[in-house]
Specification:
Blueprint: H1 6-11, E1 16-22, E2 24-26, E3 29-31, E4 46-49, E5 66-68, E6 74-76, H2 81-90, E7 96-97, E8 106-109, E9 114-116, E10 126-127, E11 133-135, E12 139-144, E13 159-162, H3 198-204, E14 212-222, E15 226-232, E16 246-249, E17 260-269, E18 276-287, E19 294-296, H4 298-314, E20 327-333, E21 348-354, H5 355-359, E22 376-378, E23 385-387, H6 389-394, E24 395-400, E25 407-412
Parallel strand pairs: 1-15, 4-13, 18-23, 19-22
Antiparallel strand pairs: 1-12, 2-3, 5-6, 7-8, 8-9, 10-11, 14-15, 14-24, 16-25, 17-18, 17-20, 20-21, 24-25
Length: 414
Amino acid sequence: MRILSPTEQKRYPRAYLMSMCFGKQVGDHVNWQTVSDGESALKFKGLVDTGGHANIWMFSNTDAMELIGKDGSHKHISESPDDFDRFVRHKSKLQFARDDRLTSERVHYTGKETVELQPTTRVCGTYDQNDVLRIFLPHFTLGAVVGFDPSFLDAPFDGIIGLGRSHPGRSSLGTPVRTIAFFELLRHRLKVYVVKGILQQLLNQKCIQDEEFYVCCRWEPDSALGYGFISFGGWPVDRLDLPTWNRIPVMPNANVAMWMIRLESITVVVPGTAFSHSEPVNADVMLDTGAAGTTLPNDAAKSLLAAVHGISSGQGLQAGRLSDDVQVAFTFKIKHARWAGGQGQAPSQTIYGSAERFFVLPQLGPGRNEEPIYPLRSSKGQKYNVLGLNFFRTFFVGFVDTASEPMILLAAQF
């Protein structure tokens, strides 16, 4: 993964820098290290996606990923928006497997396509001019195209970092057990391993201490948080004091490796007034940083957008804009039997956040100061409802990936 240059940052305004942190075990503490801009750049840009069924790392030998047809023909995915959309939409169905018939260094998927990969090393590191790994780092900065969606983003990426959760038959973070650890591959020296997922790898290398990771996404740079970060193995207290977390257990499911929780309702509240618009959702929703916006059942999406327009009109603001005091409340139903209340009644958990952050997507770059973009859409025709990147801008989100009790942790970003 490589750091975006200033030119790239101007060209692709929605591809912003995030910091990916790996904790280094030192006694009972986690130390954090930083790579300065003057050090060797990392090789790839990546899409960080928490919603995938499997943990998928894909890199091409060129500037874009390629589809390899059954006849051996190659086609850049970026040549066709339909290919991009289809590939990202169905990527969770693809799994790694080694095809010994291929003489070149490729990974063959059990799906319909094969994707050619550039051999890499480790989870993170820097390379010399001969593409040899010289430094293994517990912390680095990457140019992550977070929130990929053809209708919202035009920035290319070289790979997908899929952070789906564990379930029986798969290992930590959803990686198929039989796969190639190609982050362990050196050019000219091929090693094949049976691995158990990115978190398990980091645990084995003593880079992290717990099976957990935290995500902070921001469109606006912050003096303490920058453009956001992903922290594996602990909350980086040097960036921000430990938030007060709301814990939402995830229902273990042998057939689903997604971070799925039950959303009971969404309520828009204007403090100091009698206004409160509550909309029932009553649907399972997937948390996914790889989705630029949120998709909800049709009636809920329409009603909430109408309420947002009504509030902004009543406050005399630009259409769709909201004042800082307007809040949005998410009520989640806890389905895990261990966390259920008496007489089998499942309790609920409600958390408040900024309505402006959730309902309005900032427009960045030249010529993007027209009408605001609303990242809330109807899920009609889609298989899943999704809480996407705008949800991650509204809350800090933590993921605890244990096979018996996977859990989501939420804290408001105000």
